[in-house]
Amino acid sequence: MSAPAAEDVDDDLWSAIGDPTRRRMLDLLLVEGDGTATSLAQRLPVTRQAVAKHLGVLDRAGLVRGTPAGREKRYRVDDAQLARAVAQLSSVGAAWDARLRRIKRIAEAIQRTQQD
Amino acid sequence: MSAPAAEDVDDDLWSAIGDPTRRRMLDLLLVEGDGTATSLAQRLPVTRQAVAKHLGVLDRAGLVRGTPAGREKRYRVDDAQLARAVAQLSSVGAAWDARLRRIKRIAEAIQRTQQD
DNA sequence: CGCCTCCTGCAACCTTTGGTTGCGCATGAG
DNA sequence: CTCATGCGCAACCAAAGGTTGCAGGAGGCG
C-alpha cells in the first residue's frame, strides 16, 4: 500500500508531457506517424524554432527519436517511452483518486457515528 | 472516434498539477487534511514564500481553498476540483494508450499480410 | 497592558523556460 | 548551376519558479 506515486514520478518525463504544446506535438506525431519541425509548426500556433526546441526536449526525455532523411529530419514517437509516461499519469491519478475515496469513506463513517 | 483529448484539456488545471512542487503539496494536503504555507514549507525543499505562491496558483485553479484561522491561514483540497483534474489525467492517458494500441494492431496486421 | 514571537503578505531580484526574429548553411529540385 | 526549402545557431524578450529582505497583525505571557 501507500504507493506515494507523486514521489516516484520521473520529473524529466513528467515535465516533458507537462507542456501543452509538447502534448499536442505528441498527439500529432501519434496521429500522423511522423513529422518534422516544419510540418508540425504548420499545425501549431508557434514558430518552427519553438517546435524544434520542444522536439529537443522530447528527444532528451526519450519520448521521440529523430532520423535525418535528406534535407529534413523526421521525428517519430518512441512507443515504449510514451507508454511509460502514460503509466505515470495513471499512477498519479490513481493515487489521488484512492485518497479522495478514502476521505469520502471517512466522512461517511463520521456521519454514521454522529447519527448514532 | 478520434477524441483528441489533449485539446479538451483545461490548461489552467493541467498546468496547476504540472508543477512537481504543487503535486507534492497536493499530496501533503490530501494526507494531512489541511496545512498552511509554513507547515507545508517545512516538508518541502523550498521556502515558505515559494509555497505561498504555489498556493495562490492552486487557489486560482480552484484546487485548494484557504480560510483564515487566527494568525494563520489553513488550506485544504477541493475534492471535486481535484477529481476533475484526475479525470483529465486519465483522459489524456487513455487517449494516448488507445493510439498506441491502434498502432500496435496495425503493425501486427502488416506483419500478417507480409507473412502471407 | 506591554512585549515578544510566530505567521502572513508585499516587493525586489535572479534564473530557467517557452517563444520570437534574424541569419547562415546545406541539400534536393528545376 | 541556380534557387528555394528545411535546418541549426544566436540574440533577445516575457513569464514562471525561486530566493532574500522587510513590514504588519494576531496570540501567548510576564
UniProtKB/TrEMBL annotation, chains A, B:
One matching Pfam family, short form? HTH_20
What is the top-level taxon of the source organism? Bacteria
- Annotated ranges, domain HTH arsR-type: 2-97
User: What keyword terms does UniProt attach to this protein?
Assistant: DNA-binding, Transcription, Transcription regulation
Instruction: Give one GO term, molecular function aspect.
Output: DNA-binding transcription factor activity
Read off the InterPro entries from this record.
ArsR-like_HTH (IPR011991), HTH_ArsR_DNA-bd_dom (IPR001845), HTH_MetalResp_TranReg (IPR051081), WH-like_DNA-bd_sf (IPR036388), WH_DNA-bd_sf (IPR036390)
Q: What is this protein called?
A: Winged helix-turn-helix transcriptional regulator
